[in-house]
Automatic annotation (TrEMBL):
PANTHER family: RIBOSOME MATURATION FACTOR RIMP. Keywords: Cytoplasm, Ribosome biogenesis. It is found in: Cytoplasm. It comes from the Bacteria. Required for maturation of 30S ribosomal subunits. Residues 11-83 form the Ribosome maturation factor RimP N-terminal domain. Its main location: cytoplasm. Pfam families: DUF150_C, RimP_N. This is Ribosome maturation factor RimP. The keyword RNA-binding does not apply. InterPro entries: Ribosome_maturation_RimP, RimP_C, RimP_C_sf, RimP_N, RimP_N_sf. Belongs to the RimP family.
């Protein structure tokens, strides 16, 4: 799963959680002139713009002091949204029975994208039901994973085929 480098996670997660939010995940896309550091936050009550602003303000100060990123980058704090990204194996466990779209580093069964219902998490493997097929997908084989919102399922939205 594409998560930010460990030194950024170790710096950012405690700040987000100290403010009372769940740190869903952190994306870091380095670039010499326009890098992006995106932090997804959540809470039981949902996320409002004020929540993102509060977390962004706290993180900006810490990032300025610690200076863990070389070069310029844009800081973005966001709600995970209805199609929330997954960064950790525990997130698959939390959403058992839900449908996800998984992108793979290398094809499995000649497919790089798979849409399926999460049936189980066994060790480091996620079991996805895609129609009649039950697929064992190693967590390390996943480059991206996102929840597929119910409204897309009923309207014939995303297809991982």
């Amino acid at each position: 799963m594409k998560q930010a480098p460990e030194h950024l996670v170790d710096l950012i997660e405690p700040i987000v959680e100290g403010l009372g939010y769940e740190c869903v995940g952190i994306e870091y896309n380095p670039h010499p002139t326009h890098g992006m550091l995106r932090i997804y936050i959540d809470s039981e009550n949902g996320i409002l713009l004020e929540d993102c602003t509060k977390v962004s303000h706290q993180l900006s100060g810490a990032l300025d002091v610690e200076d863990p990123i070389q070069g310029e980058y844009q800081l973005e704090v966001s709600s995970p949204g209805a199609d929330r990204p997954f960064f950790k194996l525990s997130q698959f466990q939390r959403f058992l029975g839900s449908t996800v779209l998984v992108s793979l580093f290398k094809p499995i069964d000649k497919r790089r994208k798979i849409t399926g219902q999460i049936k189980a998490v066994e060790g480091e493997t996620v079991l996805l039901q895609d129609g009649e097929q039950l697929l064992n997908i190693p967590f390390q084989a996943m480059s991206k994973a996102r929840l597929v919102p119910d409204y897309l399922l009923t309207k014939g939205g995303r297809s991982g085929k």
